[in-house]
Design a protein that fits this description.
- The chain is mainly α.
- It has helices at residues 2-15, 21-29, 64-98, 104-133, 143-146, 151-158, 226-249; strands at residues 180-182, 187-189, 198-199, 206-207, 210-214, 219-222.
Length: 250
């Protein structure tokens, strides 16, 4: 009688379209575990993990001018420094040897011009070195500059598709830090109205505070190295003036 009652109940549930007549029978008979006791399958993460920095494509190769253009600047600075130092020291040494008087004023002036020309030459050399190797204004890859990566860029990278035909995705409207995402450097650049960011086709890097690319030194002149650039030009005129003072004193 109990089995007949159980079968009849299951048949009525199946006919009514209710939840699992045969399952209910099995649960009642103890031959099938209750769904509350069954382990739930692990849920998959809806979002894939971000692409690590060490798996990014390499940065673009430097343009030919990045290596050839600095040669001109080094030659100009080196020749001018050597010439002005030689002229100033030569004038001071010649006037010292030809002078019959032992005027302390004239001797002090000659020593001052020699010291000054060397200070100017060393300053010019240091400014040149900073322009060439300082990487001023370059936006380097880091967690703060690379993420969050735009969805279309991440999709192409995961599918190993090229980014060369893709425009730089713009950042959120009104953001003060996310202006546009460079698809060559894979970094966020600040908005141009806040900070003149630019990708240089010679240096092949994104820089902040861009002013111009100097074809003499082969580097971008930006807000970070502009004082060195101005100082370097000023040292050229200061060296010429020092050499003229030394010639006049002789």
């Amino acid at each position: 009688p109990a089995c007949g009652l159980l079968l009849a109940t299951s048949s009525r549930r199946l006919a009514a379209g209710g939840p699992g007549g045969w399952q209910a029978s099995c649960w009642a008979a103890g031959t099938l575990a209750s769904p509350m006791a069954m382990p739930r399958p692990l849920r998959r993460r809806r979002e894939a993990p971000e692409i690590p920095l060490d798996q990014f494509p390499p940065l673009p190769r430097r343009g030919p001018g990045f290596w050839s253009e600095p040669m001109l600047g080094l030659c100009i600075v080196g020749v001018l420094c050597a010439m002005l130092v030689a002229v100033t020291q030569g004038m001071a040494a010649g006037s010292e040897a030809a002078s019959t008087s032992t005027s302390e004023e004239g001797s002090s002036l000659r020593k001052a011009t020699v010291t000054l020309i060397w200070v100017e030459a060393i300053t010019a050399a240091l400014c040149t070195a900073y322009l060439l190797v300082g990487n001023a204004g370059v936006i380097s890859r880091s967690r703060s500059t690379c993420y969050p990566m735009p969805a279309e860029v991440e999709e192409r990278l995961r599918e190993n598709r090229t980014l060369s035909d893709m425009k730089n995705p713009p950042g959120p409207q009104g953001s003060r830090t996310l202006g546009s995402y460079c698809v060559r450097c894979l970094v966020w650049r600040p908005p141009k109205e806040d900070d003149k960011a630019h990708h240089c086709n010679v240096c092949q890097r994104c820089v902040r505070g861009f002013d111009h690319h100097c074809g003499v030194f082969g580097r971008c002149i930006v807000r970070g190295n502009m004082p060195c650039f101005i100082t370097l030009i000023a040292m050229m005129f200061a060296g010429m003036a020092t050499a003229m003072v030394a010639a006049t004193a002789s």
